Amino acid sequence: MSTLPEKVRILVVGAGFAGLGAAIKLDEAGEHDFVVVDKGETVGGTWRDNTYPGAACDVPSQLYSFSFAPNPSWSRSFSPQPEIQAYLEDVARTSGVLDRFHFGVSVTGAAWDETDRVWTVDTSAGTVVADVLISGSGGLSEPKLPEIDGIEDFRGEIFHSAQWNHDVDLTGKRVAVIGTGASAIQIIPSIVEKVAHLDVYQRTAPWVMPRHDRAYTGIERLGFRFVPGFQKLYRTAIYWGRETFVPAFTWQPKIATPAKLAALKNIERGIADPELRAKVTPDFEIGCKRILISNTYYPALARSSTTLVTDRIASITPTGIVTTDGTEREVDCIIVATGFYTTDQPIAHGIKGRDGRTLADVWAEHGMASYKGTTTRGFPNLFQIVGANTGLGHSSMVFIIESQIAYILSALATMKERGVAAVEPTQQAQDAWNTDLQRRMKRTVWSTGGCASWYLDEHGRNTTLWPRTTFTFRSQLKRFDLDAYDTITKELAS
């Protein structure tokens, strides 16, 4: 691995879908003076780190890949984690950009130098000066541990789902899973048969739809590999099918009634006990929280060796978990599946803008707010992929990532063409963008569905999701709109 350079035109943080995609497209556009840094030891990001049993994507395989690098080798309609990771490693290996990736490198801080119009970025491998900083660290990169009294005193094994300890053998153990989100509903069916007893701690019952997963036939896989346009046709059909979900999320939740009935049928099919059925039936509108998919979650809860606990956790002792009703359940291992920092992204605490304040400081006042989810007032030449209000509840984030990469490339080309050294969105443009977003958000199921979720920040604002169609997002970011930005020309910068 080469030494991290002291000066570079573009520094990319993160080597997941965002960072890898940015690197490939930068190279294709002739922007060769860049480096990518990542704290891990290979590409993959979320899919490299989340290796828990049962890890798989809940977006169809054909959508969960780069449009410019289709994968004819998917084995199933929903890809398991090892296949996604192998895909990303293969794309990286064949793209010709890995020579500019530096792994095992953590970013510890970054500050905008107003005098020289550059970013000074401190890393574990030294300081790098960059004209442009692209953050591709993502919203699902930093595991979030619950604040539970006594958690540090537990004498058994305890780990987060995103930091799975593969050295721990769960066979015959008493295990507790805290959380019933997307990771938990994959973990629980995968370990329930090997553990002696499983306690599942549920704060809120999720809506769980049937998982229509199947292995691709040999004919389909041959078609993907050898028939021109065949795989693209699959991808296109799935894409537009997913877009039909948008009105139910953003306009009229009653449209989702068939999905709600299917989810209720999923409970009925998987659980016979009326009391347990009642515990797992959500009391909010479907879509208000992330909709999950599984055929095996409810049967796992219905096993005699599983206990669903709905009382709140009061504390953790050296040997077990105590709930608010006073019951202590002894366990050998605790698996924490409580999600990630999404509305308070850790990287934001280390990035200082023009006035010396961090992104976290700026966002603490009113919540995450950027322009087009990509640039932020006060932070010149900072581009964030998967930033504020770019998340999805229905389709593939890879589509969003590619849209943002295209916008960044357009920005870089425009800057070069116009002789611009630095850009940052005007306050007026950023305010108008976010005012429209929050106006649209008020009528969505995420605001009217009667639930609290990780979509919402401490102010009760949804700063996570995009409240329109993905093709609308792409059209909004098709071209870099220089008139929405304050600029510094290269003459002034020098």
Description:
With 494 residues, this protein is of the alpha/beta class. The chain folds into two domains: 7-142 and 341-493, FAD/NAD(P)-binding domain (3-Layer(bba) Sandwich); 151-214 and 225-336, FAD/NAD(P)-binding domain. It is 31% helix and 18% strand. The chain is built from 16 helices and 20 strands. It has helices spanning 17-28, 46-49, 81-95, 184-191, 218-226, 230-243, 246-250, 257-270, 274-280, 297-301, 359-366, 397-418, 427-441, 445-448, 470-476, 490-493, and strands at residues 7-13, 34-38, 101-103, 107-113, 118-123, 126-135, 157-160, 174-178, 197-201, 208-209, 292-293, 306-309, 313-316, 320-323, 328-330, 333-336, 351-352, 382-384, 420-425, 485-489. Strands 1, 2, 3, 4, 5, 6, 17 and 18 form an eight-stranded mixed beta sheet that branches. Strand 14 (320-323) and strand 15 form a beta hairpin. The chain is globular. The model has no long low-confidence stretch (mean pLDDT 94).
SSE arrangement:
Layout: E1 7-13, H1 17-28, E2 34-38, H2 46-49, H3 81-95, E3 101-103, E4 107-113, E5 118-123, E6 126-135, E7 157-160, E8 174-178, H4 184-191, E9 197-201, E10 208-209, H5 218-226, H6 230-243, H7 246-250, H8 257-270, H9 274-280, E11 292-293, H10 297-301, E12 306-309, E13 313-316, E14 320-323, E15 328-330, E16 333-336, E17 351-352, H11 359-366, E18 382-384, H12 397-418, E19 420-425, H13 427-441, H14 445-448, H15 470-476, E20 485-489, H16 490-493
Helix pairs in contact: 1-12
